[in-house]
């Protein structure tokens, strides 16, 4: 019985590695050292197999995803009258609803993605101050007592 893929010959059949076997070994080693759910293993195998196949066929290795670059520098994203969305650069008074409707993203996800502190505002400072003043004028937060 002839050996397959184990020699050093440059022929097409011996040059093509045992991609499936290598994929299994890589995934087994990874899963042995990392916590991976059972549901994620098939996709992990597919991804590793695809990457090895691409490399074996002379293709370029997949480039790692580049870190997202904000539309404006984080330091300039909070202005007195508006907040600039780091996703697209749009100037807004209220960011939370915009993130949910346009990017299906919560404030926590947005802060995590861009490395923002937990107290990063989702509302422009001037807008928040106006709302606060209005609430005080109409007596909200005073705990109005009713006579019994």
UniProtKB/TrEMBL annotation:
GO terms for biological process: regulation of DNA-templated transcription. GO terms for molecular function: DNA binding; zinc ion binding. Gene3D superfamilies: ROS/MUCR transcriptional regulator protein (1.10.10.1550). Belongs to the ros/MucR family. This is Transcriptional regulator, MucR family. The lineage of its organism: Bacteria, Pseudomonadati, Pseudomonadota, Alphaproteobacteria, Caulobacterales.
